[in-house]
């Protein structure tokens, strides 16, 4: 089986789903030629040693610093990735970094709402895409590339079904206003990006990873991170023109926006 993509960048890859994405990509029988693991604070919780372990295991893995809410940091990562790829573009950008918030209508304050939007929408999505777009466009224009796929050029936004307005009435137990509203906004950005970028050969999809045992998902979550990420990578390998602009879960099921 061919590699998912020649080059992949994952944000928030020092723990949780992002770390497992990097781990499975690096360990796959046909790993991408370049895997860029990014995180905002390599010295932070469990960041440094986990990434160091992976760097030792894989020759295709490179590390870059990228804080999603810090534009100079994102630009630094773009420069580092661009100079490493030389004349090639970046094929696959996985926007995984995100923050949660359990604020209810009563406990909510504007600072918490703005902070969730700053990370989950403005930084992790809009700024990151704006800055990496030239590298994605370069990949999309590569010789012999047709149709839409992760091996050509793609942006995958790790979303959540808690951001689905269509499903909202069915999940009343988790108000989480800042998190859900910011993920709903992220979904709209994904939809707009998909419409705008498909003519440039760039596929955009939102993926719900399931309820996963991570720091964010907590121990109560039913799904192991390894299992979720296996599913996500299988879904990514099968994305095409027909699924660009879709909202899918880790098993490939379509979710309502
Ligand atoms: P974790 O809390 O375990 O990890 C979050 C990651 O995002 C960390 O690497 C964290 O870095 C990073 N991050 C947060 N803010 C920034 C920032 N400003 N810049 C760069 N990186 C940042 O969460 P998960 O792994 O569980 O979640 C990953 C994604 O999956 C999120 O987008 C989340 O919304 C989504 N998701 C998760 C679900 C679950 O059940 N776990 C369910 C549905 C969706 P640091 O260590 O520095 O804080």
From TrEMBL:
GO molecular function, one term: oxidoreductase activity
CDD domains named in the record: carb_red_sniffer_like_SDR_c
Organism in which the protein naturally occurs: Accipiter nisus (Eurasian sparrowhawk)
PANTHER family linked to this entry: C-FACTOR-LIKE, SHORT-CHAIN DEHYDROGENASE/REDUCTASE
Residue span(s) of domain Ketoreductase: 6-168
InterPro entries recorded: Fungal_SecMetab_SDRs (IPR051468), KR_dom (IPR057326), NAD(P)-bd_dom_sf (IPR036291), SDR_fam (IPR002347)
GO CC entries: cytoplasm
Family per record: Belongs to the short-chain dehydrogenases/reductases (SDR) family.
Protein name: Ketoreductase domain-containing protein
UniProt xrefs under Pfam families: adh_short
């Amino acid at each position: 089986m061919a590699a998912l993509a020649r080059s992949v960048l994952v944000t928030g890859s020092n723990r949780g789903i992002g770390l497992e994405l990097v781990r499975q990509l690096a360990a796959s029988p046909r790993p991408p030629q370049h895997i860029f693991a990014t995180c905002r604070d390599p010295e932070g919780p469990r960041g440094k040693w986990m990434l160091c372990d992976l760097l030792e295991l894989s020759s295709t893995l490179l590390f870059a610093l990228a804080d999603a809410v810090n534009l100079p940091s994102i630009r630094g990562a773009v420069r580092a990735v661009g100079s490493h790829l030389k004349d090639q573009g970046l094929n696959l950008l996985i926007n995984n970094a995100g923050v949660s918030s359990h604020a209810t209508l009563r406990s909510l304050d504007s600072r918490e709402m703005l902070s969730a939007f700053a990370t989950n929408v403005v930084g992790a999505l809009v700024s990151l895409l704006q800055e990496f777009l030239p590298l994605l466009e370069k990949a999309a224009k590569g010789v012999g590339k047709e149709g839409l796929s992760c091996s050509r050029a793609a942006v995958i936004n790790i979303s959540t079904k808690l951001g689905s307005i269509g499903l909202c009435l069915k999940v009343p137990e988790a108000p989480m206003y800042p998190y859900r509203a910011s993920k709903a906004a992220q979904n709209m950005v994904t939809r707009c990006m998909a419409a705008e970028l498909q003519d440039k050969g760039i596929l955009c999809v939102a993926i719900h990873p399931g309820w996963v045992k991570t720091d964010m998902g907590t121990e109560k979550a039913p799904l192991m991170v390894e299992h979720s990420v296996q599913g996500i990578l299988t879904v990514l390998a099968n994305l095409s023109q027909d699924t660009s602009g879709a909202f899918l879960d880790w098993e490939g099921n379509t979710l309502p926006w």
